[in-house]
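Dear H.,

Thanks for agreeing to be a second pair of eyes. The structure we're designing against is below in token form, covering all 180 positions.
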């Protein structure tokens, strides 16, 4: 999310209904949870008093998910959170939790980057398989199982062989870059 992007403003009316100021419609807690899952920051304010109710509603979303059996927070963590409200640790816990979740987000991003970097490798393997089929076809002049097309005249086979050599050299260069 861009830092200049403002949080989505949700206004709570006296009737406790929640109003999305961007789309001019009413939303539910589940809608707000969806905005957050999509990466949006939200701010929920009381229309009459102007009080920031964001924390209260986020805690309500967490409590609803936990009560539905979508448990993310182990009992021991919940117990420690309750204890932290009654000890001197209250001042340290918010920074610790924020740092822990920041590390979690960073490691999750790195994991996604690693998974995405494997995608070009899969494409390279597919290209290599196609090149091997074409190479065998060019060398033997025969049909390779799974390969398409008919037998080509010898002159075309030589052109195919040259093309395969060039593609193989390109592929070797790409693979050497991936190893670095």
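And this is the sequence the design step returned. I haven't edited it by hand at all.
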């Amino acid at each position: 999310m861009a830092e200049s992007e403002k949080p989505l403003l949700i206004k709570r009316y006296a009737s406790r209904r929640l109003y999305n100021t961007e789309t001019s419609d009413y939303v539910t807690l589940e809608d707000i949870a969806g905005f957050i899952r999509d990466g949006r920051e939200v701010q929920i304010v009381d229309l009459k008093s102007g009080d920031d109710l964001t924390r209260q509603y986020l805690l309500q979303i967490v409590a609803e998910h936990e009560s539905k059996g979508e448990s993310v927070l182990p009992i021991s963590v919940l117990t420690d959170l309750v204890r932290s409200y009654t000890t001197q640790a209250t001042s340290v816990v918010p920074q610790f939790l924020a740092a822990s979740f920041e590390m979690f987000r960073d490691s999750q991003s790195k994991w996604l980057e690693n998974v995405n970097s494997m995608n070009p490798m899969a494409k390279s393997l597919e290209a290599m398989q196609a090149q091997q089929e074409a190479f065998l076809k060019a060398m033997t002049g025969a049909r390779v199982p799974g390969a398409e097309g008919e037998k080509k005249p010898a002159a075309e086979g030589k052109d195919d062989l040259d093309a395969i050599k060039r593609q193989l050299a390109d592929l070797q260069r790409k693979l050497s870059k991936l190893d670095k």
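Two observations from my side: The helical segments are 29-37, 54-67, 75-84, 93-140, 154-179. The CA atoms of residues 22 and 92 lie 36 Å apart.

Warmly,
E.
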